[in-house]
Amino acid sequence: MLLQGIFPPITTPFYPDGNVYFKKLESNVERYSRTPVSGIVVLGSTGESIMLSDHERRDVFKTVRESAAPDKVLIAGTGVESAVETLRLTEHAATLGYDVAMIRTPHFYRKQMQPANLLAFYRTVADSSALPVLIYNVPPFTGYDMPAELIIELAEHANIVGMKESNGDVEKVRRIVAATRHIKRIATVTETFSAVTPRMLVAANTESKNGGGELVTIGGPSESKPAPSSSAVTIVGKMKTRSKEVGFQVLVGAAHKLHPSLEAGASGGVLAFADPAPTACYEIYAAWKEGDLPLAREKQERIAAAAQRLGGELGIPGVKHAMDFNGYYGGPARLPLLPLTAEQKAEVERLLADIRN
After folding, report:
1. Known catalytic residue: 257?
2. For residues 264 and 66, what is the distance between their CA atoms, to the nearest angstrom?
3. 205: nearest Cα among 234, 243, 245, 229
């Protein structure tokens, strides 16, 4: 599966009394769906997933799935501390129609999180997961930084398609990309090389059957050939698809280092700063993709200070206030997270004065 571009790890909106505000969640997702982001990450760290009950997590997954545009890749944050519970939540996300499971490193029993433990955990989950697995390394929250050597070893698993690397170490990204360059997989993409997921293909095929259409391959290989060429075009309903070779895909989590991370080989970013400013983040990626490095650097510099202050220091309350300021619904975080002070809110607004969406 192709994972490239910008993915906002959306927040979970709450009423002042702490209950999940599902109408605002729907509204935010519908608005993200109209931006150029590649997809949406649900219940990552920025989504306060650790603050939610299992029932609330399932309801949030359902609401987002029903509200998102059909062409957006949906990534479900299904990692919990045990492999058994991770697989249960992943199965639920797959049943709803999610495309990828993002699974954070277990960390509560930190001293026991040795390479053998993590290898067993991720291999067990990947072996049985109904969804492709994205490793999620987020040391600022877990206090555990997954070693590059361990990631490189896990990258060989056929159902582990990539990772979200949130430690902000560009050289680590470069090392992982270089060491996994030999991994080659075939992904289905649109005619213009955007991601296509099995869910999208099923929808297009259903549309084709209901409309009396048919599946047609243009310029493709015969059935005896195992892998389609990138020039082959398959028409399913109104969708034209082709194949693209992809490797182990690294998405980064530090928006203030997005451009250097792309230069190091990252395929995109899951960026908390994309919650209030998805287009500003996308502009960095688009300029880099088009080979306009001066523009990419300029766009990077534009958001650097705000992204570092919000994502790295003010955290979820800062991100949520920035969303309020930029026309999304942020609202309160759940305790023990406290709202920003008036001075901090004014600082966020100053930082975003030239970064409006």
Report:
1. no
2. 36
3. 234
CB count in 10 Å sphere of residue 178: 12
Handedness of CA 112, 113, 118, 119 (dihedral sign): negative
Tokens in use for 97? Answer: 């129609």
Q: Which of 164, 172, 257, 299 is catalytic?
A: 164
Chain centroid, CA 337 distance in Å: 24
Q: Residues 6 or more apart from 329 whose CB is under 8 A from it?
A: 13, 21, 24, 27, 28, 323
> Alpha carbon 284 to chain centroid distance?
17
pTM reported for the whole predicted model: 0.93
Q: Walk along the chain (357 residues) and give the pLDDT tens digit of each residue.
A: 999 999 999 999 999 999 999 999 999 999 999 999 999 999 999 999 999 999 999 999 999 999 999 999 999 999 999 999 999 999 999 999 999 999 999 999 999 999 999 999 999 999 999 999 999 999 999 999 999 999 999 999 999 999 999 999 999 999 999 999 999 999 999 988 999 999 998 888 776 666 644 444 333 333 334 455 555 778 877 788 999 999 999 999 999 999 999 999 999 999 999 999 999 999 999 999 999 999 999 999 999 999 999 988 999 999 999 999 999 999 999 999 999 999 999 999 999 999 976
Name the residue type at position 247: G
- Computed from CA positions of residues 158, 43, 5, 173, in that sequence, does the dihedral angle turn out positive or negative? negative
Collapsed DSSP state (helix, strand, coil) of residue 173:
helix
**Out of 32, 98, 136, 328, which one is annotated catalytic?**
136
Q: Shortest CA distance to 255 belongs to which of 325, 331, 355?
A: 355
State yes or no: is 282 an active-site residue. no
